[in-house]
């Protein structure tokens, strides 16, 4: 994997059934991707969004086991592939050894007019290096 | 389709890029499913959660076009199939004729201990009728 | 009062204690104000935010009784006073006759550079009429 | 102050005006209180909610300056006073030296039936010590 976001399951994440409400998982996924852009690609979202955006084109998510208030969750993110303007990521969320969900996400780099934009060369070089050199 | 939730895109749904932040779409999907259980199956979530829950097992979502503040979105829900304890749904979100996203969702009926529970006969009968008689 | 937003308490609003999580009340307050701007002032947020914003300067909120999943809540909004760039509102949220919370909110009209902006005359005229003619 | 929660302003916190949407501030306030209960009082919310809850009775919040994507915010929490079942807190949120908001919050300790509950002696002793010994 290429980066990990550790997130304790907090009161705000949980529903009346006492487990994480799935839209909160999608907020955590966004946080994990935002952290990867800042820490691995050195292109923080607050800079990136000055000139464009990276909206999501698709998700495939399998929920394997529920998460409860107080659990410590690791969102392990792996960059799987880069296209011209697309990026394929996988996020595996675990508490200890137990997998809670696996999410496959495709992002697209766009400009301020919403048109697909080829990833900048400096970013592409970092992503190529990450894919070729998994931790 | 079997039910529709109409949702105006509000300030709270939108991100700094001026479009709907995808975790908010998942809240809308949950609202659409909650409305279907109340209006079509006559089993409102506030009753259902007294004795069990209907967590999501998986999502496949394709985002086709962004939604903007002020758009009126229709989340059109179709019941696709029922299993012993599972339910397969499709939600197609449109603003006018433009499709914004298509979500395929699998739910599982569980008891208070988290074990899969066969859908009650009265619910199963209503779902069977819906599947056999699409609007 | 000058406008009412009716909101059923949904699964997404509730916490593990089975009652509304207070940040969700603040989302509802924002929805009630957004609805008042659209329906009473005829200045929907999606238009207003093209040229400015109406951030909140202060809140005083008293929570009187909890709200539960399935309750129907009416957020009754009254315009209390208008200043040069400020607006004082009160939102009383009730389920039937029972008051759930009372919120006093002060908004400020600002331009795109964040500077206070005198309310446009057309808006001021509508607000003056509302204040002078409570329903 | 008695505890601090550091929170980078993330994409998910911001609205189309590019600043923090105020309901997200209230989620942060809840996180800061949850962290204080875990770290200072050694009574994490995941344990506390097994036998009761600590709902909010009131808020007075003044927003002094907006927060933007990428800002680092410190939520500095001070315990101001303890009553039989109540607790008065103040949260001052700053980015560097600039105060962004000041929130005065009153919590109430309740049992599983929603009745006010005197703070347990062990918690009261820790709070008394904190109030008498500000950092």
From TrEMBL, chains A, B, C, D:
SUPFAM superfamilies with a match to the protein in the record: Thioesterase/thiol ester dehydrase-isomerase (SSF54637)
The protein's name in its UniProt record: Acyl-CoA thioesterase YbgC
Pfam families: 4HBT_2 (PF13279)
Gene3D superfamilies in alphabetical order: Hotdog Thioesterase (3.10.129.10)
Organism: Tritonibacter multivorans
UniProt superkingdom: Bacteria
